[in-house]
Design a protein that fits this description.
mainly alpha; Serine Threonine Protein Phosphatase 5, Tetratricopeptide repeat
């Protein structure tokens, strides 16, 4: 998880390796399956790593595996659902899964952020802003606060409030982000 949250190309590659090692030990371990799928989603979203169709299919399979594991883990559910929304376009399934994650943990800021994204992309701007503002209140020191501003910008865009969309996008661009230098490095033997 630490490598994933570095949110760098190198960190995601390392997170894929580590999640793969966990899945080799226990192929049914839902958190590792969700993490692997989330890494692939992030790699695709940012154009990091050339992912094959097989990599994408595997990410979707792992995300479904994680959701079907019936774990009461909001983080696992959120990661898997967001992957299926982004890589497979499964908006209804993702929305249902986010509802499940938030019922398990109403304080899951990342799940609120992803839920806000779906609202924004489904042209529900007020619900999107409400979800993002809740995520911001739950995690005010999140190192990736730019995600909040960017999602709110998309919501304002959907509502045709162009001035507010620009202002919010600008805030997201100016938000501090976590430095890769603060991320753990893999220990070499």
């Amino acid at each position: 998880m630490a490598q994933f949250y570095c949110f760098t190309e190198e960190g995601l590659v390392e997170a894929v390796v580590l999640a793969g090692q966990a899945l080799a030990i226990d192929p049914s371990y839902a958190p590792a399956a969700a993490l692997m799928s989330a890494c692939r989603r992030a790699q695709r979203a940012h154009g990091w790593s050339a992912l094959s169709d097989e990599d994408i299919a595997e990410a979707c399979r792992l995300a479904r595996q994680a959701l079907n594991a019936e774990r009461d883990d909001a983080e696992t559910i959120y990661q898997a659902a967001w992957t299926l929304f982004y890589l497979a376009g499964e908006a209804a399934l993702a929305a249902e899964a986010f509802d499940r994650a938030l019922a398990l943990n109403p304080n899951a800021a990342h799940a609120w952020t992803a839920r806000g994204n779906i609202y924004a992309l489904r042209n529900q701007p007020e619900a999107a802003i409400e979800a993002i503002e809740r995520a911001r209140r739950l995690s005010p020191f999140d190192p990736y606060t730019s995600r909040y501003a960017h999602t709110i910008a998309v919501a304002h865009l959907a509502a045709r409030r162009f001035e507010q969309a620009i202002e919010s996008a600008d805030r997201g661009t100016m938000s501090p982000s976590k430095s890769a230098s603060s991320c753990p490095q893999r220990q070499r033997r």
